[in-house]
From TrEMBL:
Residues 273-456 form the ATP-grasp domain. The keyword RNA-binding does not apply. Its EC number is 6.3.2.-. The lineage of its organism: Bacteria, Pseudomonadati, Pseudomonadota, Alphaproteobacteria, Caulobacterales. It comes from Asticcacaulis machinosus. This is 30S ribosomal protein S6--L-glutamate ligase.
Length: 476
């Protein structure tokens, strides 16, 4: 294919009729009927839901095209670079400020770059207008008497079983309390670099309209738009309210990267360990009791001192204490219970020597791993407690256990912490909102980009069935 002016086999200029079937493959529009109008200087394309995004150095625009006049149930979601914003005066004398994009026109198998303005042509018979500027760039002629001189196309490409093979720009919501931290920024940058529209939403500022007909999530005094995807990154202090927000997004039809029930299961350490045990996943011996009278019994169940005492809803290494003796264990357990805190006791894996593995699972694969080493004098290999992150190679068994643990809790993205013991790898914890800074630095893997790639793989383009239906469906 070439971008040279088109000519026929007889070296004659290409001739258009006053209406023609054309294609815009870069936008996922293999067939669109256009009016060819030498009276119009610029070309225009029907577009709705027009919204700019991208960066100052590379401004982009996302928009929706209904390629078939009168068929609002058939949509194609498009994105393109913005080359300018100019005023255009229509044939009826109205002036409109429009975004201009450059895309390629498919004419008889050749791809020709043309400029197109985006405007709502809902009341027009043709979804595209091919203007004088584009015709001149092709060296084409127009026969105003004839129509459809070029080979015909069909709208069946939109209503058949297969949609056009083009990656769709997604509208993504990132639920977070801090859009400026490393993990949030990495995800935002990765999504924007892959031409998606992403918005950081502060979880605590969401509020909900809970009703049967039209469930909504509101923010800053107005309902949020329909998101294709929601990426929940909910901090532990925000767990209860954050889960309610995720559930509300689920009722709107959005695909949530980690669903609310999976996040809830992972946040309750006792519940998570019970699920993992039921699935046969190895872990340190763990005991749980409510009554102070049972303290000696739970200490014995995990093999006596030294042992680990852990809050069931702690995070980042907080609420985890190593008790070296039975007396110390009894004192720590008593102190936590006086605070009305739920806790569990756990076998201490001495041979781990202050080291653990963080395996980052996306889908059914460990995409990156690191070894975390505790600072001197501490046994908690957590980066938030001053630990170090090192590159590491994990065994096939460790990778398999990590994936199995994430799947057991229903998590699509998870950080699985594993201890290396004398009897093999043991799962310590499964994190539903794992940080990205340590793992990306230690492994050299762009994990954020892999997360967005995974989301793309879970989505497929469809024709919408109604005005409030989601534009994309999950791949099951």
């Amino acid at each position: 294919m070439t971008d040279a002016p088109l000519n026929t086999s007889l070296n004659m200029p290409l001739t258009f009729g006053w209406e023609e079937w054309l294609g815009l493959p870069d936008l996922g529009l293999p067939a669109i009927k256009a009016k060819v109008d030498t009276g119009a200087r610029t070309s225009s394309l029907h577009a709705v839901d027009i919204e700019p995004f991208g960066t100052q150095s590379r401004p982009r625009v996302r928009f929706v095209v209904n390629p078939i006049a009168g068929r609002h149930d058939v949509e194609v979601v498009c994105s393109a670079d913005i080359i300018g914003q100019r005023e255009v005066t229509s044939s009826n004398g109205e002036t409109e400020l429009r975004y201009f994009i450059e895309t390629r026109l498919d004419v008889e198998g050749r791809l020709i770059p043309i400029e197109v303005s985006l405007t709502n042509r809902e009341g027009m018979a043709y979804r595209m207008l091919l203007g004088r500027q584009a015709l001149e760039s092709m060296g084409a002629l127009v026969d105003p008497v004839r129509s459809q001189i070029l080979p015909p196309r069909s709208y069946e490409v939109y209503t058949g079983s297969e949609a056009p093979a083009v990656r769709r720009p997604l509208r993504i919501a990132l639920l977070t309390q801090d859009a400026s931290n490393y993990s949030s920024r990495a995800i935002i940058d990765a999504a924007q670099s892959r031409d998606h529209v992403i918005e950081a939403i502060t979880t605590s500022r969401c509020y909900m309209n809970i009703n049967v007909l039209r469930p909504e999530v509101h923010y800053d005094g107005k309902p949020l738009p329909q998101f294709d995807v929601v990426i929940p990154r909910i901090g532990v202090p925000m767990t209860s309210y954050g889960l309610a927000v995720v559930r509300q997004f689920e009722t709107t039809g959005a695909y949530c990267l980690n669903r609310s029930n999976a996040i809830a299961a992972s946040r309750d350490k006792l519940h998570a360990l019970q699920v993992l045990a039921r699935k046969g996943i190895p872990m340190p011996v763990t005991a749980f009791a409510k009554s102070p009278k049972d303290t000696d019994y739970v200490v014995d169940l995990v093999g006596g001192a030294p042992l680990v005492v852990k809050l069931t809803k702690g995070a980042q290494g907080r609420g985890v204490v190593l008790a070296d003796t039975r007396l110390a264990a009894s004192s720590v357990i008593s102190a936590f219970r006086d605070l009305d805190a739920e806790l569990l006791t756990q076998e201490f894996i001495k041979e781990a020597d202050g080291e653990d593995l963080r395996c980052f699972v996306i889908g059914h694969k460990v995409v990156a791993a690191m070894m975390r080493r505790a600072k001197i004098g501490d046994f908690r290999a957590n980066l938030h407690q001053g630990g170090d992150a090192l590159s590491v190679d994990i065994s096939p068994e460790e990778a398999q256990i990590a994936v199995k643990a994430a799947r057991a809790l229903g998590l699509q993205v998870a950080g699985v912490d594993i201890l290396r013991s004398k009897t093999g790898p043991k799962v310590l914890e499964v994190n539903s909102s794992p940080g990205l800074q340590g793992i990306e630095k230690a492994s050299g893997v762009k994990v954020a980009d892999l997360i967005i790639g995974h989301i793309e793989g879970r989505m497929r383009p469809i024709q919408r069935l109604g005005a409030k239906s989601p534009r994309l469906l999950r791949r099951e």
